[in-house]
Amino acid sequence: MKNGQLYLLLIILLLPSCMLITYSPIIKKTDKVKNIRTVRLKLNFLNAKEWRSPLVTSSKHFYKEISQGGNSSYFVYDILELKELSSTINDTIFLIIDEHIFPIKVQERQTYGKTIKRTKTDNILTSDSTTTTVITGYSEENRMVEKIKYQLGNKEIEAIKNAKKLKFRYYSEPEMITIKISHLNLMRIKRFISKD
């Protein structure tokens, strides 16, 4: 096997495990109206750990509020795009931190449909030998979008600070969806937690 083929095979095998799509910085702000400081981190994911998961894409928005007295509250806002006929996400999600399981109740939820329309085009050679692009068809893909909010307590935050592995487990009955946090993103979450 030649080097080029070996590299191509390696990329094909590793690509499904690469879940990070974009880089997002940790953002700190002061809110003078509420008299709090906030810290935010957004992570985007392309797929779930399960091969035939109903998950299409997801993003996690970690949000920290620091009161005037220095008390911190941690929230996670998830946006999950699921395949069209998926069930809604259950009211309890699970953090799997190393080998410990932490059930967390969803506090708020919004569910709505989303349609992605695509245009199919083709290049046609005209009688004067120029090429023109024509629309040859349309396709639609329907998805269900779930926006959920939940709070992380002190027990979960302390476990994340010392974690070597972190996963988020959702159930869209009868399917399960597991989002595995990479080592790099786990380090970013730990930095987010430590920011004042």
Jot down its keywords.
196 residues; Immunoglobulin-like; four-stranded antiparallel beta sheet; 3 helices
Write structural notes for this entry:
- This protein is an alpha+beta fold.
- The protein has one domain (17-114, 143-194): Immunoglobulin-like, CATH 2.60.40.
- Helices cover 16% and strands 54% of the residues.
- The protein has three helices and ten strands; from the N terminus they run αββββββββαββα.
- It has a six-stranded antiparallel β-sheet.
- The model is unreliable at 13-21 (pLDDT under 50).
Question: Strands, helices and their partners?
Answer:
Layout: H1 3-14, E1 27-31, E2 36-45, E3 55-66, E4 72-83, E5 92-97, E6 100-105, E7 108-125, E8 131-152, H2 154-161, E9 166-172, E10 175-181, H3 183-194
Give a brief outline of the structure.
This protein has 196 residues and is of the alpha+beta class. The chain has 3 helices and 10 strands, in the order αββββββββαββα. The protein has a single domain, classed as Immunoglobulin-like (Sandwich), CATH 2.60.40.
Strand content: over 45%
Mean pLDDT: 85
- What coarse outline follows from CA principal-axis ratios? elongated
Spatial ordering of strands, largest sheet: 1-2-3-4-8-7
Please name the CATH architecture: Sandwich
Radius of gyration: 21 Å
Largest sheet entry:
6 strands, antiparallel
Helix content: 10-25%
In terms of per-residue confidence, which ranges show pLDDT below 50 for 5 or more consecutive residues? Answer: 13-21
Number of distinct helices:
3
Number of strands: 10
What pattern of helices and strands is seen along the backbone?
HEEEEEEEEHEEH
